[in-house]
């Protein structure tokens, strides 16, 4: 087998976590033993001490995931969002191993690393697509910034002592004006992130929808809104507003917004592909990640009773 024919995995790890260093070293060794090359960004490989490790190759700056069948990320949701920037549009799915706290975007936990590598080697994973957002900012009709987001796009006040005045528009029609700390436009994937902290609903990832959530709005009509996936949203910073704003994409990429700026958000045609190792429902993930109290649920006991008696339960799921 030539070098060009060998399987390649892009490995992304939190560069300042000792735990990430230890696990990354273990993953590299296991994959190398299985005949799979590991591609890493040169500065990250140097920080983790893996530059000269057998089977580690430098990634190209322009397209780190080039030629890779999978992106494996070791870290929390922030590191996984960084991995999503490298995977989106390449066709390579993203597999996150949680080294953080909640890790909603992660598919595996740190203690599952052995079985996770086995899944990678055997290619025993499924792939699901997650909706992303396209965002464009205009000033006086001129585009000044464009980007995308997996979780959310936020327009926030830039000054703590100043309130931001924002007009929300849906499908070309004005909806309302909020005096607020900001506004979140989120995907179902992002419904458990910033939008959730701002009071938005949790939306199952297979639901196609956009969320519009004002942050600390001084208004009677300040409830979160769930909109259709093809809605065209626009947020305008009122020209005579008290404060200036900032546009953030996934909390990672930002640009300042002058008064009068117009931000347009639509569903993107390019999703992020996530690798899944299990078929457990989103409900189980929600319970585990938020440590929800399910004391008193007798679903399993009812199923066992029905199996024992040979009769279907008539008192719930």
From TrEMBL:
Keywords: ATP-binding, Cytoplasm, Kinase, NAD, NADP, Nucleotide-binding, Transferase. Its cofactor is a divalent metal cation. It comes from Pedococcus aerophilus. Belongs to the NAD kinase family. It is found in: Cytoplasm. Gene3D superfamilies: Probable inorganic polyphosphate/atp-NAD kinase, domain 1, Probable inorganic polyphosphate/atp-NAD kinase, domain 2. Involved in the regulation of the intracellular balance of NAD and NADP, and is a key enzyme in the biosynthesis of NADP. Catalyzes specifically the phosphorylation on 2'-hydroxyl of the adenosine moiety of NAD to yield NADP. NAD(+) binds at residues 77-78, 82, 151-152, 162, 181, 192-197. This is NAD kinase. Pfam families: NAD_kinase, NAD_kinase_C. The active site is at 77 (proton acceptor). Its EC number is 2.7.1.23. One of its GO terms (molecular function) is kinase activity.
């Amino acid at each position: 087998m030539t070098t060009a024919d060998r399987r390649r995995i892009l490995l992304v790890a939190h560069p300042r976590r000792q735990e990430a260093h230890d696990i990354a070293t273990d993953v590299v060794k296991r994959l190398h033993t299985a005949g799979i090359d590991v591609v890493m960004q040169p500065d990250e490989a140097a920080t983790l001490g893996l530059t000269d490790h057998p089977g580690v190759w430098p990634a190209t700056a322009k397209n780190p995931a080039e030629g890779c069948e999978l992106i494996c990320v070791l870290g929390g949701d922030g590191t996984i969002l960084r991995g999503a920037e490298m995977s989106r549009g390449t066709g390579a799915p993203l597999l996150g191993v949680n080294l953080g706290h909640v890790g909603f975007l992660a598919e595996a936990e740190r203690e599952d690393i052995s079985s996770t590598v086995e899944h990678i080697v055997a290619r025993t994973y499924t792939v699901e697509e997650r909706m992303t957002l396209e965002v464009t900012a205009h000033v006086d009709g001129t585009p000044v910034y464009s980007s995308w987001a997996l979780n959310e796009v936020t327009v926030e006040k830039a000054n703590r002592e100043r309130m931001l005045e924002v007009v929300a528009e849906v499908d070309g029609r004005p909806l309302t004006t909020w005096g607020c700390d900001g506004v979140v436009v989120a995907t179902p994937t992002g419904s458990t992130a910033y939008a959730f902290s701002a009071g938005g609903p949790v939306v199952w990832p297979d639901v196609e929808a956009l969320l519009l959530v004002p942050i600390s709005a001084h208004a009677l009509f300040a409830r979160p809104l769930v909109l259709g996936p093809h809605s065209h949203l626009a947020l305008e910073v009122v020209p005579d507003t008290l404060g200036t704003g900032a546009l953030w994409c996934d909390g990672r990429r930002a640009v300042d917004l002058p008064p009068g700026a117009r931000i347009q958000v639509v569903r993107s045609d390019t999703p992020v592909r996530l690798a899944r190792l299990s078929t457990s429902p989103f409900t189980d993930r929600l319970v585990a990640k938020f440590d929800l109290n399910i004391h008193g649920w007798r679903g399993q006991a009812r199923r066992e009773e029905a199996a024992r008696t040979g009769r279907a339960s008539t008192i719930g799921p």
